[in-house]
Amino acid sequence: MSLLYPQFKDAFSRLLASCAGRRIVVIGHARPDGDCTGSQVALSRALRLLGLDVVCANPDPVPRRLQFLVAGTPFVSLEAALAEERVAIYVDCADARRATERFAAAFPEPIACIDHHLSNVGFAGINLVDTSSAATGEILAGLLLDAGLPFDAPTAMALYTGIATDTGQFRFAATTRRTFLLAAELVARGADPARMGLELYEQETLGKLRLLQHFLASLELSCDGRVCLGVISEDLYRQTDTGQEDAEGLVDYARCIEGVEIGVLVELRGGAIKGSLRAKDATFRVDLIAAEFNGGGHACAAGLNVKNESLETFLPRLKASLRARIETVAAARNLTR
Ligand SMILES: [Mn+2]
Question: How many angstroms is it from 331 CA to the middle of ligand 1?
Answer without folding.
Answer: 31
